[in-house]
Design brief:
about 100 residues, alpha+beta, YaeB-like fold, four-stranded mixed beta sheet, about 40% helix
Length: about 100
């Protein structure tokens, strides 16, 4: 399987979250980055392992952080649609191509 591909909105989600943690604590930002990297490695290794959150997307919840990686498979590529905060309105990312 190839490296995950982030949609522009997912990249923005990630950068905004990382910046928020970094403004508060470099250690928290590093932990968030590691959690995302670990989740992406898990997803690439076994993309069908994580449950569907709608008809098209799957969701991997991060440990220790209130975020999830929302993704779909396109051929053999993991396409990340969102790095979604748990308190954000569910599905805000559904229109992302």
């Amino acid at each position: 399987m190839t490296e995950p591909r982030f949609l522009p909105g997912a990249t923005k989600d990630y950068e905004d979250a990382f910046d928020w943690y970094r403004a508060r604590s470099e250690r928290a930002a590093e932990g968030f980055e590691e959690a995302v990297e670990r989740a992406l490695a898990d997803i690439v290794e076994a993309p069908d392992r994580w449950p569907f959150c709608d008809r098209r997307h799957r969701q991997h919840l991060l440990r220790r952080y209130p975020y999830s990686i929302v993704y779909r498979l396109v051929n053999d590529t993991v396409v990340v649609a969102a790095v979604a905060h748990a308190r954000r309105r569910f599905g805000y990312w559904k229109r992302r191509q």
